[in-house]
Write a structure and sequence with these properties.
Largest sheet: 6 strands, mixed
Helix content: 25-40%
Strand order of the largest sheet: 8-7-9-6-1-16
Bound molecules: ligand DP6
Oligomer: single chain
Strand content: 15-25%
Radius of gyration: 19 Å
Length: about 350
């Protein structure tokens, strides 16, 4: 198993420190037990622990170059210049790295992903995991995995889980202790996530805007109170590769999160008619013997989780449902890591 820390690919880390330039690759992840709501929004200290799988078929590649000829940070996403709040968020992440490294130099940041924006995959997880690894390396830091997970978390909570490999657990705690660690490598279990795209529209309220609303729902306290039990059941089922035990708890956890969203002030309704049609189809497929479960993030698109041998049958059945625009499929993925460019 590869690890993002400086011991596994020391040559790339040394080269990055010398040239003030580094490129990192990170995968997005799908949460089986969800993060929704913070104890501290500024530090992204979550209200509850969560558990996820990195999506190995999907990735973001980010290059960070510290360059003292620049007057401010410059960001390009998929070759397009980006300013405003997205650049401010990247600058805030790099400021943490600059402070730790004692650097005051602006950076040029180039980021590209192989999955479409609006596909129902939290692009911020892969983006801030890759940014943290590339930024730390280019700044000449020698961070361990926990430090990288913490840096990624400060950019986007779910990004903490994209730093370690495979199946990851992110615990509540302080700024120092709220980090993600791997509980099983990608090779542990060939689960597949089929992301069923039913809408490519930009969400009116994204995750960052949604987290502060969680506490306005009277259901959030009950959701948080039950997370530890669901997490234990999910972790145990995952470690023993027991999808029949894991599936019901991931569905329950996603539905409880959406109940919180729908009962917030103002309410967040992310589902559309096709979302509901897929939920109902999932129940029918299971009754017919096809073992597949759903989970849904902050949007209408549905993630169908099954074991790899059943992915073809699930995809064929899903394509029959009206409103399905695309399906992206992925197995478990490795850690965020430096790559040579
Ligand atoms: C519903 O990590 O995207 O996908 O910290 O504001 O960037 P920020 O939020 P983000 O929230 C993810 C919420 C979720 C559930 C999950 O991935 O655990």
């Amino acid at each position: 198993m590869t690890s993002p820390n400086t011991q596994t690919n020391p040559d790339l880390w040394q080269q990055a420190a010398r040239t003030r330039k580094a490129t990192a690759l990170a995968h997005p992840n799908i949460a089986f037990i969800k993060y929704w709501g913070n104890e501290n929004d500024a530090l992204r200290l979550p209200a509850n622990s969560s558990l996820s799988m990195n999506l190995g078929g999907l990735y973001t590649i980010t290059t960070v170059i510290f360059d003292d000829s620049l007057s401010h940070d410059e960001l390009h996403i998929n070759r397009q210049p980006v300013t405003g709040p997205a650049l401010d968020r990247v600058t805030a992440s790099l400021n943490l790295i600059r402070a730790e490294a004692g650097l005051q130099i602006p950076a040029r940041i180039e980021s590209e992903s192989n999955f479409p924006v609006g596909s129902g995959i939290a692009s911020s997880a892969a983006a801030f995991a890759a940014l943290s690894v590339a930024g730390a390396a280019a700044a000449g830091l020698q961070p361990d995995e926990a430090t990288l997970s913490r840096l990624a978390r400060r950019g986007s909570g779910s990004a903490s889980r994209s730093v370690p490999a495979g199946y990851c657990q992110w615990l509540t705690g302080s700024d120092e202790t709220s980090i993600a660690t791997s509980i099983a490598p990608p090779e542990h279990w060939d689960l597949q996530d089929l992301v069923v795209v039913v809408s490519q529209e930009h969400k009116a309220v994204g995750s960052t805007g949604g987290h502060p609303l969680a506490q306005t729902s009277s259901l959030q306290a009950a959701r948080v109170a039950g997370v530890e039990t669901r997490l234990q059941v999910c972790r145990e089922a995952l470690l023993t590769r027991n999808l029949s035990a894991m599936g019901p708890v991931i569905e329950e956890d996603a539905v409880i999160m959406h109940a919180v969203m729908m009962s917030s002030h103002p309410p967040l309704y992310y589902w559309n008619a096709a979302t509901m049609a897929i939920i109902q189809a999932t129940q029918q497929w299971r009754a017919e013997g096809l073992e597949v479960y759903f989970t849904i993030d902050a949007g209408p698109n549905v993630h169908l989780i099954c074991e790899a041998p059943h992915a073809g049958a699930v995809e064929t059945a899903t394509r029959q449902i009206s409103g399905v625009k695309d399906i992206l499929s992925s197995g478990p993925g490795g850690p965020a890591r430096l790559i040579s460019r």
